Amino acid sequence: MSPLPEAELVRSSVQLYRYLLRCCRRLPPGPIRQHYRHAIRQSFKVHADEDDPERIQQIIKRAIEDADWVMNKLVSLYYRRKN
Fold this sequence. Notes:
mainly alpha
């Protein structure tokens, strides 16, 4: 299960960027959210010159998988502490 239902619609790097930032909005406010927003921006800068379509699709797939893992872990920890 993906963090947001739009994960299946992500086909380009711009769509991925927007999708990941929307995922960040679901994280608990504070330094954790800021950390992941910064990490997303840095990753896009690092991969900005990538031009191989197959490699881009690999990056998109991995980023969505990583976002799923982060969202499941952090959101469950946050709400467990809150209750």
